[in-house]
Hints:
The chain has helices at residues 35-54, 111-118, 182-193, and strands at 57-59, 69-74, 83-93, 104-110, 126-132, 141-143, 148-150, 153-157, 169-175. It has 198 residues and is α+β, with helices and mostly antiparallel strands. It has one domain: Trna Endonuclease, Chain: A, domain 1. Strands 1-2-3-5-8 form a 5-stranded mixed β-sheet. Strand 6 (141-143) and strand 7 form a beta hairpin. Helix 1 (35-54) packs across helix 3 (182-193). It is globular and about 50 Å long. The termini are far apart. Residues 44-191 form the DUF4365 domain. It comes from Streptomyces laculatispora. Pfam families: DUF4365. This is DUF4365 domain-containing protein. Residues 1-21 are annotated as: Disordered.
Amino acid sequence: MALAQPEPGGPSRAGGHGGGLLPQRIAPLRGTLATTACMETLQVGYLHAVAAAAGCSLSQPFPDNGIDWHVSHGAPGHLVDDEVTIKVQLKCTYQIPARPPGATFAFTLDNAHLVKLARTPVSVHKILVVMLVPRSQDDWLRAGHDRLDLRHCCYWTNLAGHPVTGRHRTTVRIPTSRIFDDRALCEIMTRVGAGGRP
């Protein structure tokens, strides 16, 4: 019986790594899709992973009216309904380093977009989720036998009531303490389900 030789960069290269992440490999020939389009796809993948782990469903408004996703969370403990929904606007940038210093980092929005996110009161709450990624696509993710690492991180904030301060664009501050993961999403939904804000 003939055994196929392992492909370069295949599982055999993980030897000595204890089943962890595979070592960095030579960059593959990537497609010609614009980097910004790839960033949009990456942040959607992040949102899907978080929603799946949180037990939430996702829907995409059509046509898009300035909000990317509706995230719904059903639980018997909700007071306002058996299922609550928030609206999520996704943004992605490589211009801000991972783990930015300080308690917040600056992110700039078009004023028209900020007005939509800042409106209050609302019947369905909105959050802004900003993903920070490495500049190079080669560094966006690493796959291993026991996990998939997606870099770097998403942070969330509720901009309800935020003032417009710039002529055309306004800089907002995103708290680095608000990492957007499944636990954070469940906590957001619990607060909204009790009649509060995200």
